[in-house]
Prior knowledge:
WH-like_DNA-bd_sf; DNA binding; Sigma-70 family RNA polymerase sigma factor; RNA_pol_sigma70_r4_t2; single chain; 2 strands; sigma factor activity; mainly alpha
Amino acid sequence: MTTINLKRYYPYMTENVMLEVSDEIAAALSMGGRLCDSYKRQKRRNGECSLDTDPGFEADVLRQPMTPDEYIEARETTFALYDAMAQLPPTQARRVYQHYLLGMSKAEIAAAEGVGRSRICCSVERGLAAMKNILKKSL
Length: 139
């Protein structure tokens, strides 16, 4: 039998309470303590990291929420961009949408459509220039 101090495992306890436990339980508690200490060292060395989500989630949580004015402005900008994209020729609009909104690379778009990458690059660039002109006229 091994004697352990419960205050070490339950930080909310205000006084030392000694308890006799079996050797297996003492070994499990000791291993858990070592794993916890290891995690704390990793956390200090690598910065704060959430275990249940993608890295970088904490930055999103710390960001201030949008004000109603910012929210309305963001929606209007989004609507204006989609409206400008709707005025492009269908092929150009599809390629701009695939590249910027779906995140496909120009090479992936070229492979899917069976055309050269340079044709996709030119089409996307011309589409962006046309959208820029459309947006300038609408403002």
